Amino acid sequence: AEDGYELWLRYSLVTDQQKLNDYRNTIKGWLVDNNSPTAQIIRKELQRALTGLLGKSVPEVKSATEGTLLIGTANAAALSSLDLKNRLKNVGPEGFVIFNTKVNNKNTLVIAANEDAGMLYGVFHFLRMLQTHQPIGKLAIESTPKTKVRILNHWDNLDRTVERGYAGFSLWDWHKLPDHIDPRYHDYARANASIGINGTVLTNVNANALILTPAYLKKVTALADLFRPYGIRVYLTARFSAPIEIGGLKTADPLDAQVQEWWKRKVAEIYKVIPDFGGFLVKANSEGQPGPQNYNRNHADGANMLADAVKPFNGIVMWRAFVYDNNVPVDRTKQAYNEFKPLDGTFRGNVMVQVKNGPLDFQPREPFHPLFGAMPSTPLMMEFQITQEYLGFATHLVYLAPLFKECLDADTHAKGKGSTVARVIDGSLENHTLSGMAGVANIGNDRNWCGHPVAQSNWYSFGRLAWDHTLSAEAIADEWVRMTFSNNVAVVSNIKNIMIASRDITVKYMTPLGLHHIMGWNHHYGPGPWIKDKPRADWTSVYYHQAEEKGIGFNRTTSGSNALEQYQSPVQQLYSDPEKCDERYLLWFHHVSWDRKMKSGRTLWDELCHQYYQGADSAKWMQQQWNTLEGQVDDAQFRFVKSLLNIQQQEAVWWRNACVLYFQTFSKKPIPPGFEKPD
Ligand code: GCU
């Protein structure tokens, strides 16, 4: 039985007979005209994939004959007749081309790139086409990634616990590294390379300085060596106080010469063993982490000190904008903008500021972060959370591509209409050369990597969108289902329907109409809209839902926290008037009366109940849809998802009941007719 270990790289026999014949005729042999370590990886992958997909082994040949799959970089001898320099002039170091052509008068299929990594990406792209039963007779593909740094952030601790990780322990077995190399590291790298991910931050943003000591750097080196031929660079988190903790200094002040010198030496030590080390990710002065503000310096002072240290080696610094202090009596959603916007233009060229998709914290639905479009002189990186901290962990089925897309497609209006978040982070809006997208990983050492079988699609879609943010959530789901479960049209459409609906359903049973952060206050799993157990001032004095007798919602207009002022004026206009505000964000921006008339004609109270009930009912619908798949997908996978959907359905009812009954203590209104019956 399948156990999900192979992820989307399943390579099972092509079930469409016509396609199978077609593929067998088109690919009679293959040739990788290259001897790099990456080429070795490609050879192994082709052997594995073609044997599985075509049901027979396809030989490696020595020269192009009829039906050869030809793979190489621009200078490959076997491809010398093809004017590759010209064909590859627009695809950069990581892009690739795939096309059918004649070589020595023989029909061949060519996958070519400027560099090794592009070759590998091209091969995985081609294999995906076979896995999803695409035609391969008339190909003219040119593909270039839209963002440069496509990177996973592992919130993995050195003791192998994973902060907000729900799929077991960390993959990194620090205890046995560097001598023992778990074969799984290779499969991790294959999976990432297959979707174009080219970087990984191995350690938690709440960093431990020990990772920068020689003993740990040896272990990191082993991983970096292993990942290199897959096109993956290793990055680490830097604990700002490391010069004190492991360096024996009295201060970590970024303007102190000794501190600067310490980091320069540390960085040189790292690059000596990892010449292509990517750089640092830093969380500073947020949630109790140390940072430059401890010394009355600002974020740019801190980031620039590290940037100067990695600059001679082409390293970068990803400085996080997720900063807030719960003792500061300012709406938390405003704090990042307040601190970072004034620093625009003061960061070094090799710094990117990494911004969460929304201004609060990875909620089921948030408006886009107001920093996007507000710092034109600084390359801003996207930070998405793939792990479902606020979306039911690895227990609830929630496909996140619609959430990612909603943010990427949002218009900041920073330079007029069409200034989407996607264009901010791919660098095109302001012509930045650096660009990037980070995803907080949902990967652990569970046999199936991500806990929930469908959670694998979130890792997958993050990578696909980092490569090309114009892909639709539907198209990505389509590929993923075909590669993971089946190409059967009915199965594909059924699973796709569940996936596409799942995020909106979750929003409805958790936080409809713009509600936010009403989950259990520390674990963030189940419902916790009640104030009494909130231990922090920002929750009790300015608690986000603000429910009271007259109404509910957080006023972020001029008469409230005025967080809206941080957006460009066309965006402000979209949300400032409660009568015109998109109802999906109503209670995010407005405090409104329980009796307010909604678009549906219902009162706000009735609509709130309606959405909670609809969410819970739809969780049941997901279950029913899935149950029709029995016998059509792998049985073990079928049963696993079935039992998880059963939990999700029960917990959707739990969310609904908890929230409706709690809010009813303020509204003092009856539950609308038809809904009062218990499940
Ligand atoms: C959330 C999460 C923390 C994490 C933080 C961050 O608040 O709950 O565990 O450390 O985000 O992004 O730094």
TrEMBL record:
Its EC number is 3.2.1.131. InterPro entries: A-glucoronidase_C_sf, GH, Glyco_hydro_67_aGlcAse, Glyco_hydro_67_aGlcAse_N, Glyco_hydro_67_C, Glyco_hydro_67_cat, Hex-like_dom2. One of its GO terms (cellular component) is extracellular region. The keyword Hydrolase applies. GO terms for biological process: glucuronoxylan catabolic process. It is an enzyme of class 3 (hydrolase). Residues 130-449 form the Glycosyl hydrolase family 67 catalytic domain. One of its GO terms (molecular function) is alpha-glucuronidase activity. Residues 450-674 form the Glycosyl hydrolase family 67 C-terminal domain. Homodimer. Belongs to the glycosyl hydrolase 67 family. This is Xylan alpha-1,2-glucuronidase.
